[in-house]
Request: fold
Amino acid sequence: MTPDVQIFERPAQVAQALAQLFVDSGRVAIAEQGNFRVALAGGTTPKTAYELLGDEPLRDGIFWKDVFIYFGDERCVPPDDPQSNYRMANEAFLSRINIPLGNIHRMRGEDEPQTAAASYARVLVEDLGSLPRFDLILLGLGPDGHTASLFPGTSPVTDDALLVRAPFVAKFQMHRLTITPSVINNARHVVFTTEGEGKAAALAAVLEGAYEPEEYPAQIVKPTDGTLTWLVDRAAASQLKNTARFS
Ligand code: 6PG
Reply:
């Protein structure tokens, strides 16, 4: 499957495209089924897009009461910690939109990791069923080819029945919480955003290199019955050999 890779000149255009895609996907899902269940990416790349979601006009482009927010991964820190993905998203837009607090489901990074993973898995099953199917999952790409918190060296390619895992990530000397590939690949739409020269080697390896998912966990992402889209800037795309096939 050739993924849909959209290359933009500047990061601001990537952010605008992601924010617009969020609203467009949400409106379709709400029209079809009355709700929109989305798992947010963490890190820094999506922050600008999240801020756009908290500003007019996009803030007014969707009925937030029908939007249900989850997270694809979280650092094992309290929600007010500067490293917290929840804190980043909350400051960027969740605290600035008219969304019922009960619609936001953060991962409890402050809890014991395995306990937090198990309790989040229960939330997913209660809300989305035994194999959750998100309408949209947002992902980023690390310079080492990781996505969510599926890192090289943490046995990312597991087909176990777990929905949420709590790997210890040696490079950060901390545990993380992450949805698993079975959840990611069951989504209707998966969208990566990747920006900057620092990601160029990883992006080229993931999109054009040999299939080595233990080394490049982002390669695991192949939705079984859904779409896969990459929104990237020119710098991140700079090592791609064959961009002709991409838009
Ligand atoms: C996290 C993310 C992670 C992120 C990549 C890219 O918790 O850090 O979920 O997978 O998307 O590491 O991070 P940046 O956007 O900060 O480059």
Summary: The chain has a mean pLDDT of 96.
